[in-house]
Design goal:
- The protein is α/β, with parallel strands linked by helices and about 250 residues long.
- The protein has a single domain, classed as 4-Layer Sandwich (Purple Acid Phosphatase, chain A, domain 2).
- Helices cover about 35% and strands about 20% of the residues.
- The protein is built from seven helices and eleven strands.
- A six-stranded mixed β-sheet has the order 4-3-2-1-10-11, with helices on one face. A five-stranded mixed β-sheet has the order 5-6-7-9-8, covered by helices on one side.
- Helix 1 packs parallel to helix 2.
- The longest helix has 19 residues.
- It is globular.
- The structure holds manganese (II) ion.
- Manganese (II) ion binds next to loops.
């Protein structure tokens, strides 16, 4: 895709809407909508790279309550002809055609390659990539198993949603705050993953979320890894202006 002069590509992730309560989440949702308003003024394309919701499960005929402002804004931007690409995160992987049908927004479950103005990008949420984390990788297999998903789907939503809510809270408690700082090149698993990919494929930019920590790291002389941070603590995003990629912080 060619990005014309004056146009930009935006990347952002990890809003975790729904967390920790309705009022706090709504204030955050409104802020993200204001950001999207600003971005859509000069966006050629917008990437939302996972964990938009703290929990999302699409039943066959029903979707979770709430989130009308951000969904409305995404629909409006998409209808205006600005493509939005969505990547599921580990908190909202249970998507099943709603974004595609309702908003014409494609949903990706794996990292994807893009080329903008001859720069190569690898974009994905980032969960389950790189070395280690075998516990999560095993859970992810269960979460993505069609039989398990169907069984969850036939539970009454009041039960399903409360199981999900408590496991989402537990997964955060388990992560804690110990990873709230840069762990060094050897221990940042998405840096290790990027290096592994570079052995066979070249990318100028690796763009991931999931880490909840804005990171801009030069992996090799020619390749950078950018972590998008989150919209809970940082209000961080990345923007590509056709030549350069920058990690930025939204300030009102
Ligand atoms: Mn997240």
């Amino acid at each position: 895709m060619h990005i014309p002069p004056g146009k930009k590509v935006y990347f952002l992730s990890d809003f975790h809407l729904g967390l920790p309560d309705h009022g706090t989440s709504l204030a955050r949702e409104k802020k993200i909508v204001r950001f999207l308003n600003m971005a859509s003024a000069d966006a050629a394309m917008i990437f939302i790279v996972g964990d938009l919701f703290d929990f999302w499960y699409e039943y066959r005929k029903v979707v979770p309550k709430g989130f009308v402002r951000i969904l409305g804004k995404m629909a409006e931007i998409s209808d205006a002809g600005i493509p939005i690409h969505f990547f599921v995160g580990n908190h909202d992987m249970w998507m099943n055609g709603y974004f595609e049908q309702e908003m014409n927004i494609p949903v990706f479950h794996e990292p994807q390659s893009y080329e903008f103005n001859s720069k190569k990008f690898l974009v994905g949420h980032g969960d389950g990539l790189g070395p280690g984390d075998h516990g999560y990788k095993f859970l992810k297999k269960i979460f993505r198993n069609p039989v398990c998903q169907t069984l969850f789907g036939i539970l009454p939503p009041v039960i399903g949603m409360s199981i999900a809510r408590s496991s989402s809270v537990k997964s955060r408690a388990a992560t804690g705050v110990k990873d709230d700082r840069f762990l060094g090149e050897e221990n940042e698993w998405l840096i290790q993953y990027s290096k592994e990919v570079l052995k066979t494929d070249f990318y100028d930019y690796f763009i991931f979320g999931h880490r909840h920590l804005p990171i801009d790291f030069q992996v090799t002389e020619k390749s950078r890894y950018v972590n998008l941070g989150d919209w809970i603590q940082y209000d961080s995003y990345a923007v590509f202006d056709g030549q350069l990629l920058e990690l930025k912080y939204y300030k009102e």
